[in-house]
Design brief:
- The complex is a heterodimer.
- By secondary structure, chain A is an alpha/beta fold.
- Chain A has 4 domains: 207 residues, no CATH class; 225 residues, no CATH class; 41 residues, no CATH class; 195 residues, von Willebrand factor, type A domain (Rossmann fold, 3-Layer(aba) Sandwich), CATH 3.40.50.410.
- In chain A, β18, α28 and β19 form a beta-alpha-beta unit.
- In chain A, α4 packs antiparallel against α5, α7 runs parallel beside α9 and α25 packs parallel to α30.
- Chain A is extended.
- Chain B is of the alpha/beta class.
- Chain B folds into 2 domains: 168 residues, 3-Layer(aba) Sandwich (Rossmann fold), CATH 3.40.50; 89 residues.
- Chain B is built from 13 helices and 9 strands.
- The longest helix of chain B has 15 residues.
- Chain B starts with a helix and ends in a 6-residue tail after the last helix.
- The chains are: A alpha/beta, B alpha/beta.
- The interface between A and B is medium-sized, with 29 and 30 residues.
- Bound molecules: adenosine-5'-triphosphate and magnesium ion (MG).
Chain lengths: 773, 271
Amino acid sequence: MTAGIRPATDTRKQAMLHPQVQAYWQEIDCGFQQVADVFEECLYEALSTFSREEIKAYLEAARVLGKLGRGPEPMLAFLEEWPSVATAIGGDVLPPVMGLVRAMQKSPNGNAIAPFLQTLAAVARRLQSAEQLQFYIDIAQDLMVRTTGSIHGHHTTFPSPGLPEFFARAPFLANMLSMAGVRNWVEYGVRHYGNHPERQTDYFKLQSADSRAVLQRERHGTLFADVERRLDLYLRALWRDSDQLVPYSTAFDELRKPIPYYDSLGLRVPDVLDDAHGPGGTVSGLDRYRAVLAHMVGHRRWSRPQIADNWSPFQRMAVECFEDCRIETLLIREYPGLRRIFLALHPKPVADACDPETTSCLRHRLAMLSRALIDPQHGYTDADLLEYARRFHELLADHAEAGTTEIADLALAYVAKTRRQSDQLAKVHFDDTVIDYRDDNRHLWQYIEDSDDEDFFDDPDKKNKKPSEVAGLPPRHYPEWDYQSQTYRPDWVSLYESLHPSGNPADIDRLLTKHAALAKRLKRLLDLLKPQDKVRIRYQEEGSELDLDVALRSLIDFKGGAMPDPRINMSHRTDGRDIQVLLLLDLSESLNQQAGGADNASGQTILELSQEAVSLLAWAIDCLGDPLAIAGFHSNTRHEVRYQHIKGFSERWDDTVKARLAAMAAGWSTRMGAALRHAGHYLSARKADKRILLLLTDGEPSDIDVADPESLRADAKKAVAELDTQGIATFCLSLDPKADEYVREIFGKRHLVLDRVARLPEKLPLLYMALTR
Amino acid sequence: MSNQDQYKVHREPFYQAQGREVILYEAAYAARLPVMLKGPTGCGKSRFVEYMAWKLGKPLITVACNEDMTASDLVGRYLLEANGTRWLDGPLTTAARIGAICYLDEIVEARQDTTVVIHPLTDHRRVLPIDKKGELIEAHADFQLVISYNPGYQSLMKDLKQSTKQRFTAFDFDYPEAALETLIVTKETGLDEASAARLVKIAQAARNLKGHGLDEGISTRLVVYAATLIRGGVAPQDACRMAMARPITDDADIRATLDHAIDATFDPSPA
Ligand SMILES: Nc1ncnc2c1ncn2[C@@H]1O[C@H](COP(=O)(O)OP(=O)(O)OP(=O)(O)O)[C@@H](O)[C@H]1O
Ligand SMILES: [Mg+2]
């Protein structure tokens, strides 16, 4: 290709075989050797499909593309691709296509013309209508306009970084998403990375995590993530199975086209399934999942591994086919309604679709047999097929459950009976032979001779596992609320959890001694708190006190001649406290500031004061016996939110915990939402009447990668609302004197602003007691 | 005694034994040992007691306990009347006087101080002190105390006290296994066996979800309801949705799963 361009005259005069082609070649006046090489071939294809008019338009467009000054690629791509575009959706779309080409040429986006034309045919084949293609062109145009030259305020000088990448991935996108989905996916990329050339490129290359996440969100069909619970319930309710369901990606694995399977780690199913529209009716994505699961459950119940060493691949295929049908027959016996779903998903091969003279028909035969075994109305007439269907049903009829071994014998007999020379042919008939709700049957085979294989059988995944998945604690991804679009940005924030480093526990004990007087006062309050949580029970016939209201009412009734209510007493009951608290500490840089105020004579930093306060609180809560967890957080952009574990709910208030508190340090920023969500994730797993998240902070949410102050506030507010729906009460104690501007917005009434920070050690435990009284 | 007659079970209730509970109960009654029936709702506990009362020819007094119930509701109370007060026996007192089997249904629902009043009746003394009247009633020789208790759904707070539990002999009830439950449904409603078996299958599917979004599975009682509806001409799938799936949950995912179980069991298309 890079051989260089020969003298122009040579190429333009290149001899074509056909005189008409020669004339056309002259017409388009092209000097590219690469084009000359394929021109004749392209034209033959064009001539076979296009009318005279269309040929003219085709050549004219090609000529224009050759004159853009962008090398041979645009022209080459067009000449090669256009006939199949026109076949897929008609030639009428040529004007808009050329319109977009011209627009790119006029803007600095000429580099995207070739990618556009190169993938156009694949996109068109997928879209199947001129209307849809127009939609596609509009999306591209919009992307181009909004991402071109907007960097640093310059005008239309820089080409769109995302546009060529978008075109390159367009066939993939069109496969995965509806055009509306493509538009949303593009919209997200433009909105978030409009000003960020590298990130924009990553996004449109489908390389960034959020790009893939948004794609996943927009996919058509039934997403595994959306029906996971239903599938769990299905397994449990109908099959008493509770194995792990593990989705595998279908989006990024076009080539291998993975098939469901199961192994020691769980049942592997695709991450999305479209509704299936077949001659047997429509099956929803959810029911397709159920069919996949039922089939695998059946194998787990009724299949036994077979020694495979002595069987040929054909024999194994037949055994798998018979075994699959046996399993489904048993499944249908359990739940007759499954037959409808299986039959709607099972292909029904046409009896004489495969020519055994020229093609290997083994797959075709087996698919028909498979259909016949589960479909009483199959309608096939082949004698062998009918005989084996009969024997199959006979074998399964007696309830002494014929197992895998017996069915394998039948399968081998079938292969022996129906074998043909042509089964060995390289050309295999594939149409209507794929039964996609069936798993890959890897569980069915055992190899005794090759010990490597045996290992492989034990852990089939070993070979595929990426090392990165195993190494280190992976980040958790959390969404973030985008208040401008009122949507979540999925998997936006990466949160790393780690154990807080340790210091000297004696430091904390020293702090506690320093506050001994305060501790003593608190202790008195704590003792009061314990028995104070009494509940009054009214309407008691017998009780410890007279309930005056009720007694009077009864007396009036009595005096009036009516039946008085004898339940005029009340009693008390002491309830156990059932409270779990998570204390979340803002450990951002600002904590290192000295706390102001006249009563802070010793000039302590906010961090030091927080340390004292937290120690006292932990001690106090320990006295009360409420389970308490403590964690700190700070952030350095959305890619790095650090969540540091200081005390777990079940950890004792001892030297290990005190040592971690002693090492408390501050730095970086305050990305509150993710930390709240992560803390909530722990709290929601706890069982208690009251679950409280207590946040101690000295400022508003902020981070260095976010300029708009409203943005992280809105996200924190959203996080608080999420916690609320999970039954977790969030309370914020703020040390920022200017907090009034925003705390209410985020936390509603549940906040307290402490403006004399020096009194924090005293206030925090008191606050807690007041909250939980 | 007409008072006894009033509480007698006159016609034989249908009860399908699940095991040896009938003989064992007779033995417990012979020794007048108190009995505790444990098991989920609608599994046949009440029916069993009714049947035993009939078989033994003893009167039966049933009290459905609730959280507002006090000791007086069991023992009795003075009623105030214009010209003084009048004592009225509670059901427990009545049973102790006339020699009935007293069945306290869902005893844990009652407050803990209430349960204490049954203690003296359950040990060798077999007496019931009525504090307010200053009377001590010796239980009739035929009197027996039976309580029911569903360990499933109550909170930890509501568990029976050990000191109460340890005064009873106990039977563990559960939903019968499929064949037996099918039989119960056919006999109770006259539904054909194949359909009854399908109803039971659906009920079992729901029971598998206990603890995974369902507090209780579908009870035998609800299966009987569905069967009754089908006998009354309702289409099976409708009957199942109405009597078995809808009552037990508002959770959309669970409902979808049960609906699927119903469709998968009663195949809508011809086989
Ligand atoms: N063994 C059985 N024999 C006959 N009928 C039964 C049996 N088990 C259950 N049933 C049927 O189930 C229905 C409910 O049973 P029953 O009222 O005895 O339940 P229960 O265990 O007392 O429930 P709850 O705890 O809600 O009071 C009965 O009316 C009857 O139709
Ligand atoms: Mg009952």
